[in-house]
């Protein structure tokens, strides 16, 4: 064999090896199965079954399987033909009447949407920054030596209706709003495409020269889930009414404001327990004083 032939043969084998190595390492760049098991994709009031199917397919592309549907418009959404390769994922999707029920077990809830015609009061993060926040939370979920099984963090990524996106009330359940940067002339994205873009960014390992913000101190501090925060908010509302700070007619507005405030504060699990004890003591004292009058 001539030197030229040997060189060509070596080049061919080298190229084949590189392709094999690339394929062998491809899936290793994704999150681990345990990490992916702690992320819920939540679709709020989706209108088109094809979009639900496209979202399910995007989830399957990146190995995610926990899909929640809140108050869907169509009854036949489970039969969406656009869920290529993901029919089982659709069949195992959970359906909830309200967003509060869907995210009750979650310690981090991020909404998605554009800032077009919207002035949210929530914290706003770009998708790369939000993805880093999510990855760090999912990594903590696997820290079994530092966390008990009951306190492992869960993340919910929320997508709104195709017609109007997430409402102001929907956003009160979110710790922050993440924005996909799009062209000004067409700021909104198709639901399935938005899910795909977000999950790709979450799954992607940042390059070493990228700035990676840290959202935790490195210690696995337990965080309260949505249900715990809502119990605290309810107790604060009772206290506000007991001291005539507000009437029952303002309870809805107060509830929304408290949900936003508590998520801005990001209190730890221990902080929530202390505040619960504090407000319970105030209520007990107020009721005791009234009974003695």
UniProtKB/TrEMBL annotation:
GO terms for molecular function: methyltransferase activity. Residues 40-200 form the tRNA/rRNA methyltransferase SpoU type domain. The keyword Transferase applies. Keywords: Methyltransferase, S-adenosyl-L-methionine, Transferase. Signal peptide: none annotated. PANTHER family: TRNA (CYTIDINE_URIDINE-2'-O-)-METHYLTRANSFERASE TRMJ (PTHR42786:SF2), TRNA/RRNA METHYLTRANSFERASE (PTHR42786). This is RNA methyltransferase. It comes from Acidicapsa dinghuensis.
